[in-house]
Every structure is written in C-alpha cells, then in structure tokens.
Amino acid sequence: MVLEQANSSLEDVASYGPGASAEIRLAIQQPNNAEAQSRALDLLNRLVAKIRMYYELSQRIEQLVPLILWELCSGPLPPAEQLEALQATCRQFARLIDFVLSFDALKMCTPALQNDFSFYRRAMSRETGGTYVIPIELANTISLFLASPTPMLSALTTATINFVVTHSDLPVTNTTDTLATIVQCEQFENILTWTSHEVPGGEAHLL
C-alpha cells in the first residue's frame, strides 16, 4: 500500500510543473480583485491537498521503516545472509529507498511546491475566516517538511536513528551493514536495467 502510494506521489510530483505560479502572481498584482484571489485559492486548495498527501506519506514511511529494519536486522544471521533469507522484504525496502531519493530529486527541481504552500499559508494567516483544506497547525508542520531540501530522506533518516536508539541492544553495524548492502544491490539493479536498455537484444551484460 505504501509503495503504491509512493509510485502515485512520484508521478504526481513529476507532473506538478509551475503549480499555481501564474494565479499567485495575478493575485499579488491585483490584491483587490476578488475573482483573482478566489481563482488562486481554489487552485491552491487542490494543490495543497496533494502536498498534504506527500507529507502524510513521509509520516507513514517514518512509522514503517523501523518495522522493516527490525525484520531485516534482528535475525541471527550476518546481514548479507539475513537479506538473502528475506529477499522479498529487502526488495520492497530497496524500492522504498529508491522512491525517497527520486522524490527528493524531483522536489528540488520543483520550487513551485514550496512557493505555492508559502503563499497559501500566508493567506491562512491573513484571513482566518477563509475556507482552507488544512488547519493552520498542520500547515505550519508541512511548511517545515517542505523547508527541507530532502524531506523524504529526512523522514527515512529520522526513522533509522530512532530505530538504532530504541534497539540499543542490537549492534549498530547490523543496521549500517544492512542499509549499505541494500543500497549497493539497488545501485547494481539500476546498472543492469540501464545496461539492458543500452545493449541490443535487451539483455544485461556485465562488463
């Protein structure tokens, strides 16, 4: 379910484009134009609902990662053998890490996300009687989420640190070695995928 939402969010961010930039610009230029203000707010309500979805996904990732790490790191086997025994979980975690990096890369290339939300939050502060899709308290929290250049990676990092602190009886190397192995496997799979696209016949060849 989380991976499905992650894929959907990735497609959504990739197509976010300029967001409400034009509508915001007109609303700023014509502060007394009620129609321009309303048009900007209507569009922003839809966009902010999407941004809220991204934030809530980061919270789900933060809750899910410790559960995955426990399954992968708490076994009696060395990290590489443990991952071999839990290949399905390992692949899902690798896909999750890939999403985290991909989302943050897209987010850094989409300044409209933060610009749109900043304007929306200022509007909420000015007009407390307006109709908004989120409460001001949540808006403040999401603003901090967007302020990070890599918000999904921050969520993943926080979850990992909390896992290590909570499970201090586990050797830290269990966690670090597990993560390193998963990332290496993910990079290797990406190389194979790229090579299979480059080599005639579609088969991956190791050089």
TrEMBL record:
Limits of the CYRIA/CYRIB Rac1 binding domain: 2-185
Membrane topology: Lipid-anchor
Keywords of the record: Lipoprotein, Membrane
Locations listed in the record: Membrane
GO biological process terms on file: regulation of actin filament polymerization
Highest taxon, organism lineage: Eukaryota
Residues annotated as signal peptide: none
Entries under Pfam families matching the protein: CYRIA-B_Rac1-bd (PF07159)
Coiled-coil stretches noted in the UniProt entry, renumbered to this chain: none
GO MF term set: small GTPase binding
GO cellular component: membrane
Similarity field: Belongs to the CYRI family.
Protein known as: CYRIA-B_Rac1-bd domain-containing protein
